[in-house]
Amino acid sequence: MNEPQNVDNYDGPVFNAEVSGAQFAWNNDAVTQNQQNNSAVAPGFEALAALVTNLLRELPQAGLADPDREDAESAAREVLATIARPDVPEDGRLRRALAMLRGALAPVATGVVAGTAAGAQEWARQAIEGLTGIL
Questions:
Q1: How far apart, in whole angstroms, are the C-alpha atoms of residue 80 and residue 12?
Q2: What is the pTM of this model?
Q3: How far is CA 72 from CA 15, 36, 38, in A?
Q4: Which residues touch 97 (CB under 8 Å, ≥6 apart)?
């Protein structure tokens, strides 16, 4: 005789491994999610963390195309991940992350990106200036 099979029916996501820092929504038409990372910042990098956090908050209003905005967000998150530790960040990794972020903002600052929001060009210039000379 065959053994009966167990069938599990779940009403939501199922995780079969450790999940940390993730946000999920299902069965929704429109969702707005926010997440704060209150981890420690390496000493001396508090101003950079504030600048990049503010930049991330304002980025959606800059008028970038989705792929460009996603690249800028990814670069900004890399900067934050690099400095969000109690020890001194690796210089090379931080320089690369800052260069990627400045590069993602450059098309807006120079006006190359068409359809950017009013004031976005000046905002991007100021952001790049703030990110320049950090190291």
A1: 31
A2: 0.65
A3: 30, 18, 21
A4: 75, 78, 79, 82
Q: What residue type is assigned to position 40 of the chain? A: A
pLDDT category at 16 given cuts 50, 70, 90 is confident
Q: What digits encode the pLDDT tens for the residues 90-116?
A: 889 899 999 999 998 888 888 777 556
Tokens coding 125 = 């210039």
Nearest C-alpha neighbor of 83 from the set 44, 57, 54: 44
Tokens 């038409």 belong to 29
Question: Rounded distance, CA 71 to CA 78, Å?
Answer: 11
The letter for the amino acid at 120 is A
End-to-end CA distance of the chain: 72
10, HSE (Cβ side, Cα atoms, 13 Å): 5
